[in-house]
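User: quick one, fold this
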Amino acid sequence: MANNRNSNSASSNEQWLKQYYFTRAAFSVLWVVAALTVGQQSSEVAAALLIIYPAWDAGANIVDATRSGGFAANRSQVINVTASSVMTIAVILALTMSMNWVLGAFGLWAIFSGLLQLGTAIRRWKTTGGQWAMVLSGGQSAVAGAIFMFQAQMPQVPSISTVAGYAGVGAFYFLVSAIWLSVSLLRRSVRGAEL
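Assistant:
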């Protein structure tokens, strides 16, 4: 009976994460499209998009931590919420200086939040499917952050398209995790129906 309850709880958590990952992928795709279209034409829109991106990440991590056992059980996400909230303010300040400053701030955030995402995925690895993609995403985010920080030192002025590439890769990994979970849940329900 306890095993059945644990199985239902794990399945319910995976259902939630599947929806969460699909939502994160969809948001990132829409953000990338906006960044590469309207964001290229209007500096005001680009600025708004650059502020929205870390703010959205903070909000998404709050919802995920709340739905996945609460803040006490999800310390890496609580730290990520703080980092993303601080980044939102840092981007607002960096926008008053230059895009090089903005890219440097995004680089620092990508390293920090990537490592936190990596920690969250490793913690979930034993209980939830699709975490290998989140591990790759977190690791790649940290590497991208280091590249951003290097590029921020260059004399060329970066554009929002640099961050759009990063967001696009993030969307891909969220989509892969969502699809992986969908297939796992489908296989499990087929197996359950056969028993």
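User: anything notable?
Assistant: Confidence is low (pLDDT under 50) at residues 1-6.
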